[in-house]
Amino acid sequence: MECTEMFITLPHKTSICLTEECRNVGYNIFSSLNSSNNPCTNFYEFTCGNWKINNQVPFSDSEPFWNQWIRNEFIMREQIDMIITKYQSKNSNFVKINKLYKSCLNRDDNESSYLKEARILINKLGGWKKLSNAATTGKKQQYSWLLKVAEVTRLFGVHPLIKMHVAIDLQDTSKYILKFDPGELSLPLWILENPLRYLEHINAYHNWIYKTMSLILPNVEEKSLQIQALYLIQFEIEIARLNKIKQKFVRLPLKKMYKRMPTNDWNKIVKILFRNTKADIHPTTVVQIGKLEYFEKLEDALKYTESQIIHNYIIWTVLRDLARDITKETRHLNFLINSSIFKTKVDISTTRECVDLVSSHFDSILLPVYVTEYSLQKDIEDVKNISEQIRKQFIKNLEQNSWLHFSTKLEAVEKLKNMKFSFGYYPEGLNDSTLERYYGELNITENYFLNVIKLKSFRIQKMLEKLNQQVDDIAVPERAVQTNAYYNVLQNSVIIPLGLMEPPFYYRNASRAINFGALGSLIGHEMSHSLDWNGRRFDSNNQMTNWWNQKDYLNYEFHEECFRKFYNVSDSDWRISANENIADFVGVFTSYQAYQESKESNEDVIPFLENYTNEQLFFIGYSQVWCETIEDQNFMYNDEHLPVNIRVESVLQNLNWFQTNFNCMKNHIPKCTIW
Questions:
Q1: Alpha carbon distance, N-terminus to C-terminus of the chain
Q2: CA-CA distance, 357 to 292, in Å (whole number)?
Q3: Which residues pair with 629 in a beta bridge?
Q4: Which residue of 124, 304, 480, 508 is surrounded by the most CB atoms within 10 Å?
Q5: DSSP symbols for 220-255
């Protein structure tokens, strides 16, 4: 840590940094601690107890919980908002940014016009179909549903029934390929798979559909829309059941796809999908099908579904996607379904929604300005250094590993050496002429609703035009404002978003122990995913291949079983969370070792934290990134992560270093290691 003024010399020849910046760091950490808790028995409450008291869920927040990640997103969003509103530039793209932002802020002034445009849009797509008696008799009219799916995909980027998109080729990760995957659902799969168990959410979904359609179609009887909404929900439940099919992807030329699904006019489908793009596609173009059996069973299911139901479902997916962009009332109906499922208490603010809209579409312009405006370049270089130290330690651990086969070990080391780090944006930015060409065709006006549609179509066009192109850069996240670090398995890269360049993840000019404990542990966590059950499908050259032998797999399972017993969770919870739990441990374990190897002998002491050693601050830094307040204690994440307190306590109770540094009585539970 660098401090250039105001030092107090301590007896053991270290110094206290008394700059305002150092004092703020110390107070921020110290004020979150609750020393009435014993760190040996409840370290999470020791480090986060006062933070939870002082950080209740803000009434303005749309989430049912509040944590450091969401807090940092709020900070970053406010900073980007300042750039959008105050950055003066005659650059044509900044003119578009400002025009889009203003149209979003003023959207409620023109909602009657947007409602009319939504009705026109539905009519152009074929209108809302009245159900015939076929819905109950089982008779079905001929309907080219895949043509309609291709049309709404190209126009709006929505993916009902089948997701047609261009993405990195799993077999050759240096290129892009056209992929066909199961379509995107309106509700989480866990609800649609168990509709009777989650009847409250199903009822809320029913209300969302028919009440939204009542606004769009005022001349249709409400009772008729209620009945149609029931049919759509039942249809989507059936589609969701097909999603459970587990099958490896297949690759085949488009002309063979024609034979597999001969009832569809594939030439016309491809023509619609790639309309007005520069992509080169022909019958011999190789495509990737995610779940072939899903498509075959989908075709069978649709044979017995009335065409009006299929058509209306496709129309609904378009309106569902535009629900927040039409009127205050359609936006409110969308909020009600989110409130039912995710327990949100207030809707997203207009400013937040508008900043997210602008930054997600113009991130290549805004993020380089953001880095410059907030002087993040030096911080980024420091985090790169931390990342390299952790990589070096991870490689050292692999080289000393006793159970991996020699050839597997060499390949794992090579994979770590080839791993790239990205900060979620293009560091050099793109030059003005390149950006002019990229955004040149995009015409932004004062009409917010049409702007949104143009942006959706523009994004899908740019995605489709990547077909058969080389993958040059590490893919950046679609959301510019985010704090979620992740491992990109297809590009062997760790993405460290700019939102993590703030406390408590990263402290500028703080003790390196804190930064290694906080952000360093997250980086090590993501690096660990390169060798977990998913990451090791790809070798050091990003090629999908089986480079582990059977004994390696068995040895890994043996070590994983130790963790499963240590966590003492159900088999089902372990199957979901195993990769994350092991990555938590590896991240802290490796980052602590890296800190010990790279720490300076005369690191300055931070005010308010004089009584803690650097090693203790490492663990405090790690734990405080997980501080969280939840209003509803019955709230479930329904994802692959265990509750944050369990994540923290489980990792630290498995580390003798933690127990030694806090003078805890050693527990006699066998410790688990992996690499």
A1: 31
A2: 35
A3: 66
A4: 480
A5: S-HHHHHHHHHHHHHHHHHHHHHTT-----EEEEHH
Q: What is the pLDDT of residue 558?
A: 95
- Give the C-alpha separation, 75 to 316, whole Å: 35
The whole-angstrom separation of Cα 640 and Cα 579 is: 8
**Under 8 Å between Cβ of 18 and 607:** yes
Q: Look at the chain and count its residues.
A: 675
Say which residues have a Cβ less than 8 Å from residue 643's Cβ, sequence separation at least 6: 637
- 416: how many CB neighbours lie within 10 A of its CB? 19
Residue 162 pairs in a beta bridge with 182
Return averaged pLDDT per consecutive 10 residues of the chain, 675 residues in all.
Answer: 40 69 92 95 96 82 79 94 85 92 96 97 94 56 87 97 95 93 94 96 97 94 95 97 82 84 82 91 90 88 92 98 97 95 89 96 91 92 96 97 96 97 74 84 96 97 92 80 92 95 91 95 98 94 93 95 87 85 97 93 84 95 95 59 91 94 84 91
Query: In whole angstroms, what is the distance from residue 218 CA to residue 224 CA?
Result: 12
Please tell me the predicted confidence (pLDDT) of residue 2: 40
CATH class of 130-346: mainly alpha
pLDDT at 376: 93
Domain ranges of the chain: 130-346, 375-426+473-602+613-622+643-661
- What is each CA distance from 319 to 314, 640, 671, in whole angstroms? 9, 30, 53
Q: Which residues pair with 190 in a beta bridge?
A: none
pLDDT at 310: 96
Helix 614-624 with 20-30: angle, nearest 10 deg: 70
Residues 6+ apart with CB under 8 A from 605: 10, 14, 15, 16, 17
Long-range contacts of 477-480 (CB under 8 A, 24+ apart): 477/424, 478/360, 479/356, 479/359, 479/360, 480/80, 480/356, 480/359, 480/360, 480/363, 480/366, 480/367, 480/424, 480/425
Fold of 375-426+473-602+613-622+643-661: Collagenase (Catalytic Domain) (3.40.390)
